[in-house]
Amino acid sequence: MKKQSLIQHIITGLNDLKWVYINEFKQIFRDKGVMIIFFLGGMLYPLIYNSLYMTENIYKIPIAVVDNSASKESREFLKKLDATPEVLLKESCSNLEEASDLLKRQKVHGIIYFPKDFHSKIAKHEQAHISVYSDMSSFLYYKGFLTATNRVMLEQSNLIHLDRYNNIGTYGYNAQQLSRAINATEVALFNPGGGYASFLIPGILILIIHQTLFFGIGMLAGTAREENKKHTLIPDHLIGKGIYRVVLGRAATYFTLYSLISAYVIGLIPIIFNLPRIGNIWEIYKLMLPFLLSTIFFSMSLSIFIKNRETGFIAFLFSSVVLLFLSGLPWPRSGMPDFWRYFSYIFPATHGVQGYVKMNSTGATLSQIRFEYIALWIQTAIYFIIATFTLNYMVKESKVASENINSED
Amino acid sequence: MIVKGFKNVFKRELRQMFSRPIYLFATILIMGFCYTFFLSLMQQGLPQKLPVAVVDLDNSTISKRTIRELNATPSTEIVLVTGSYLEARELMQSGDIFGFIVIPKNFYKDILTNKIPEVPLYYNNSYLIAGSLVYKDLLTLSVLGSAAYERAVIQKRGVDKENILPTIQPIVIDKHQMGNPWVNYSVFLVNGIIPGIFQLTIIMMTIFVIGFEIKNRTSKSWLKKSNYSLAVGLAGKLAPYTILFIIIGLSGNVLIFKTMNFPMNGSFILFSFGTILLVLAAQAVGIFIIGLLPVLRVAISIGAIFSILSVTYTGFTFPIEAMPPMAQGASLLFPVRHYYLFYVKEALLGAGPSVSIIHLCAIMSFLILPFVVYYRLKEAAIKMNYSIK
Fold first, then answer.
1. A32, A339, A368: residue with CB nearest B90
2. Domains of chain A
3. pTM score above 0.90
4. How far apart are CA B332 and CA B363, in angstroms?
């Protein structure tokens, strides 16, 4: 007897799941707004961001030159500086005021200034100074200009160096060894070009999945709460103890859709735009499993705050920017105050971005990102439980509302 | 008449504002959160104590000294000294370190016997900012190491003390970072992100409060209060938010520039005037979008896309001129882009009003937008002839 009722129970459960699963598909395909978020958002955003950041870096930053030295040394320095990919010597000014005016108008983003005594100091074996002024409105101007100037400076210093040792009778290898006792070779192990897209886009791709899921699910919930006041779309026997079946069934729907969308976003986009992809794609899909599930349950849990179709956007659109910074991609986690670091653990996006960037951009294996992987599964469990409670609350609320309307009739 | 209409609508909107939490949440709470979040997140200015590792294959006194010196730099912290390259590489993949240096076998012996040892510096550019900072520190260390050796040798050879430094470093670069001498990342980022979110909040709220009336078919009763004048109706409806956002924006300016002492090399008053104009311009964009598409759900989606894109198009991280030429022109369409340029020239670089004011004019030009859609919006609000879906 008992056994049979258990089987019976399971069969009803599966039938309910199937009903919810199919019904949710209908809801989604019936709703233009949700379709736009899921499909157009998921498809277009990766394309837009990739095309904006396509150049990866800023080249030929225009700078102004004030060369009061007008010597062989300063001209050679400038020639080499102009040959660097980062910098373009655009303006030549007779004094600093003129150049600084150009900088303030952002006609140039840097100034290099050789004082009158530049040549004579080198000739007299004194330290010669060069001044550089950089536009600090963007990190990339500063970084590009300074990297180029430093490189040329080291090269020229080394030449002067060798020259001086030659003068005191140290030649060849010995002189070289003196001027550079240690030879540092720099190896950017990952993202070797230091590209901006290669750095930021992988994180943005994960955020696009997170945010489109979040806003889409929020819109479905908001619409249901707004329009279903007169009838609840859930069969009565599923309310209460059976509500987990609705949560599971809906999650299965979102998961099915997002398996496809994710395959496009992280499987295809990096190939199209030649982004870093040194990870094992199947292992990355294994990470996506708890990432998608936790994001789905997280979004369903938070739907409780979304009472209208549109309020999700009004209340939470700003979170896209905040989540990017919480993920620890633009600003390293080790530099975050503890409070924000722990706060960031609440969101699937944080672990998703971290896990994905580590696997995709630095070739980590699943076992190397155990922390993120386990965190995502824990989130899946916790948000699943919260989602059942919030859904139950929302269903009851709409039932009460419809009963009120009925009694008024 | 006009005054009375304005007052009626204004009062009606105030009631609306306090009727549901969304209105105050999406204005005061979001902006309060964002100021707190971004200002405290990057409090350090430069990320401190970035984790690095040392692969020490030499285990000599000099390799140990190198490790101590690396630990003394403020921006890096050695979390691991190991004898295995593989271990360090794996730590870099799992994101536990941002870079490492390999001190090769026979490092000390090589130096003593006048060979040039190779010291590879590995760093992770997948985290661009952390990676570049770690690289800079590791490189400085190796340069200093070379210099220390050179100093010791030439000192022994009897080079005069005052000649040592010029020999080691014949050319010196004096750096002047205009407007941000501390190379504070907070300064790079805060004044780009916060205005972006501020504009986003204003646009979305403006679309919402107007569109919600149309959607709920209450727009006629709203305009009835202003005697069917859309201008008065809009003014009365949006004024509570204008006031609220101006208060938020100006308090934010006081917080950023007066309390936290971010660089302000121009006029604080003029800059704050720019903030007020940004509020008005963003509201104008909001009116334009809902006027063009008087269906709340469509307008909200368009507003969201516009607002999120404008954060990128502010150009504070990736400069606009580095984008493909086809994509650059679009930057003109975002009020916050002009506001950012105004900030750079007025506050950061101190170029003075003669240079910066052009950007204020650009922000002001957005105020034309509501007139473009005026009749369309009026039709939609009174006749309510658009489907709500």
1. A368
2. 2-54+195-408 (no CATH), 61-149 (3.40.1710.10)
3. yes
4. 10
